[in-house]
Structure formats: C-alpha cells, structure tokens
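User: I'm writing a short methods note and want a consistent example. For Amidase, I'll paste the sequence; you return only the structure tokens, no commentary, since I'll be parsing the reply automatically.
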Amino acid sequence: MSGQDLTDLDLVAAADGVAAGRFSARELVEAALKRIERWNPVVNAFISVDADACLQAADAADAARAAGGDLGPLHGVPLAHKDLFGRKGYQATCGSKVRRDRVAAGTATVLERLDAAGALNLGGLNMSELATGPTGHNLHYGHCRNPWNPERFTGGSSSGTGAAVAARLVPGGLGTDTGGSIRLPSAFCGIVGLKPTQGRVSRHGVMGLSFSLDNIGPMTRTVRDCARMTDVLAGHDPLDTTSARLPPPNCEAAVGRSVRGLRVGVVEDGHYTRYLSPEAAALLEDAKAVLADCGATLVPVSLPHQELLANLSNVLLGAEATMFHGPDLVERGDDIQPQVRARQMAGFGYPALAYTRALQLRGPILREVVATGFAGADVILLPIINTTARGIAETDVGSAPGMAEFIAQVSSCSRPLNYLGLPGLVSPCGFDSDGLPMAFQLMGRPFDEETLFQVAAAYEAETRWCDRSPPEPG
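Assistant:
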C-alpha cells in the first residue's frame, strides 16, 4: 500500500485492512521487519526474530484470503510475545541462560488460539529473567529500554512486549502478570494491557512462576485492540485445571458503549497514594474529570486489607516460585542473575503455616473486598504506577540491601489484584514534563472484563493518547 507506513496501524486496523484487501499480510510483516531493524538496537525488545518463518506464514495467509476462505479476527497480523510461551519444537528462553536450550514438547493454548485466529508469530520478546522483576533489567540478554527515552526502564517482567508495542514494532503481543508484569510495562511504556480475572485465560504450556497468582493477557496500542485479543484468548481450556468453566466474554462489543450513569469508584486509601508523585497525582485527577465529563458518576469507595494483600501475595509468590524453579536454583544458581536468585531463594524459608494461611485467607478477603468495594461502584479506578519510568542505571539494584523495598514500591499498586484474582486494565492517561507516559488501572468484579473495556474505551475516545508515538531514533 503506497504512501502509508503500515506500522502506524493499530491491530484492528491491520487485521481489517488485510481482510478488505487494502494491503497484504506480507506487506505488514515486511514493514514490521524494517522497523525492527531500525528500532531494536535502541530498545532491545526482541530476543529472537523469526523473519523467514513469519514471511512464509504471511504468504500462506494471503493465499488463504485470495481463496475466499473464512478469515479469523487477527488474520495476517504479525504479533510477538514474551519469550516464555511454549511452541512445539521451539525453544523459549524465559529470559534466562538456564532455560534457553529447552525445547517445548507442546504448544501453549494461547498460542494455538492466536494461530487459529490467523495471527502470525514474529519472534520472542525480551523479559525479566524467569519473569522475576518489575523493571525489565536482564543481564543475560541485555536490559530492555523504554522507547520514549532509552535511558529509562520499561517496567517488567513483560518488558519486551511493552517496548515492542510502544515502539510500533508489532501492534500487539502477550505478557504474563504475577505481580503486575503486564500492567507495569504497559503503564511505563504508554500502552494498554489487561490482567484478566484468574481462570479467564488458559495457562497451559506457559512457564509458571506462581500458580496462585499467574495470569496471561494482551498488551496493545488501543483499547479495542486489547479487547479483540482478549476475545480470542479467553475461554475454558480442559488442559488447564484452573481454567474457569464460563463462556468467553464479548469484550470488543463493549467498546463504544456509553458510560453515562456508570459508577466509577475512587479510592483515596493511603496504600495507593502514599508514593504518588505530584505529576502522577495530577494526571490521575485529570482522568477522573474526563470520565465524569463522559457521564460516569465518581463515587468514593473503600478497599479493606490492601496493605495485608501485598504481604500475603509475597508468601504465595515466594513459595511457589521456589517450587517451580528450585532445581535450577540448586543446580545452576550461578547462571541466574543475583536479584532473581535472591528473590527466589527466599522461598525456601517460608514455613508451611504461612503459605497455607495465605491460601486460606484468599477467599474470605476477596469476598469482603468485592462486597465492600463494589457495593456502590461498577468499576474502581486506581493508580498503577507511582511515577513515570526511572533511569535504568539508577534502578539496577541487583541484590543490594534496598532491593526488596524498591521492588515493593514499584509494584505496590499492582500486587493486590493478583492476590485477589480480579481483572485489571491499564490505560495511558498522559505524559509528565519529561515526555514520559503515565497511566491508571481499572479494577473490576470477577469475570467482568467487559465493563473495564467499556470505561477505558470511553476515556480513550476523549483523549487519544494512543495516537502519540515515541520519537524516532536519532
């Protein structure tokens, strides 16, 4: 398609354009590869680029369209994903030396569903090692860098997906979220990201970190893009025993619905506000005003036990991560970077009583939070990050004494939703004085992702932060 940079298209526009014959899947892939060649040396988003295989798949997609076959909702669109999703016969590095030579015996359910929807796979994206780390630092494959300022971090652990989507290397990709690892890089990189309700999306075939807290979800440029990917991914999977036996949602249909009369809960609790920078607080106030102008009703809400939830999630994460990765910690500990090793080794010290208590409290606290927080609200608006992305060098704390406190501050607003299993959607809400993105998150009732998309889409339609792109590399 002459005269247009196809990487400027969001996911839905790309898919709809291929379906309508305005351009080919091969043209989309070729445009992405050219942009990756220019941008990846700057942001270090890709661990591997499968150019030849993706071009062959694009040609097959174009042939299928020409033959008049039924096309999926992502037909011909090149995507890339955090490098921990298994695909039969291929390696997934998981951002680690200890995993990079292991060949997957099967394909993750989420990849099979994307394949069935017509999506193409462009490669594996950088990440915090073993999905452990909220900043995106990685000593093995190089630190991932923020497209808005390469001296700043991306957030983690789905760092490469955040950077790749923000830099328009791909219009979307998958991340995982155990303590904020979809929502943090989405917020720091200025894109949309969903942590679905636990059980909404299958985890079969994906590297585990904590089976009590892990989630898989999409990261995209726009709310509609994210909704379309969610509709493809969601639904029961018999291969995942924790998968909810519920019909899949229709999230894309919720995009464009009016929010007039919808109740948006606003929390003034100190847990979410104590670390907020003045600029972050001001941008959140602006977001509230926009939603009010759209017709939503802002209502104060209270969320009980939020301070406790971070500690309880730490117990679950610590014990379960050590269960998953204990053999590598013991046999190949020197091949794991110090911060990751220190955090996962801590799991050996959690007593069984603390772990079982953390599991036992989860249901009662969830019921109390839902009954209290959503008594007068349909969704709840919360901060997700306390400030915009900080410098890579200054936050490369390794296993220093202040490591635990620093990590706790970065993820203080994200971890409660993992413990509760509730859905959270991140939306960009502006830029600070340094030109770096800021965001908020919406928290919903269990399995009510549709309302999150409804509210976020209304906000996006008024502000269009998604239309801004990072400055081109010098």
